[in-house]
Amino acid sequence: MENAVDAMKIAFGVFVFTMALSITMYMFTMARETSDAVLQRSDVTTLMEYVETSNMIGEERIVGLETIIPTLYKYFKENYTVIFLESNGTPIELYETQTDPSLWSPGYTNKYYDNNQDVRVCSFDVDEETRRREPWTGNTNYYKQNLDMFLSGGTFVSPSGNGMDYSYSGFIDEYSDSQFRESLGEYTYNDVSAATGTDTTNIKPKKKRVIIYTLVD
Hints:
about 220 residues; alpha+beta; 5-stranded mixed beta sheet; two-stranded antiparallel ribbon; 6 helices
């Protein structure tokens, strides 16, 4: 009799534990889904339709650094391009690459300046930085460290210790009182780096989101 009672107690305990575990898992799932939904609604880039940059249409808005900074910290995670321009459309020089143009990957060109091998940079783009062999590529922590130095001022020290360091004066200090016109778009490019050998005939064009910040006078 006692064994039967003990067995019932054990079975009830297992039942209660299973129910508690199920409820806990359900609550965690609901919390995560709610969090994801809130984040998605707060991310304006998920609500935009991106179009060809050669024919920019749709809404534009005037923004400050409070909008630009969070956008920059997502470019390497979501793989979109962020470009900065003067009010007249001239590229804003953000930094000069310390890499050797002769070592840039085949197919890479600096399309924002007249000279394809110009070392001036006006954009943040994972693909372009990888082809230029920037020292922070390939590691999300290094991307963040480089942005920290770019925004606040300081030196990003090359992780390899090869002396390829980047010194920044601080984007925040320089543009703290500035406003930018934010334009959203999309551009098409051929990913030559995906070619097999020298055969580029079967490379399919890719589309990439781009966010352009044009300085407002």
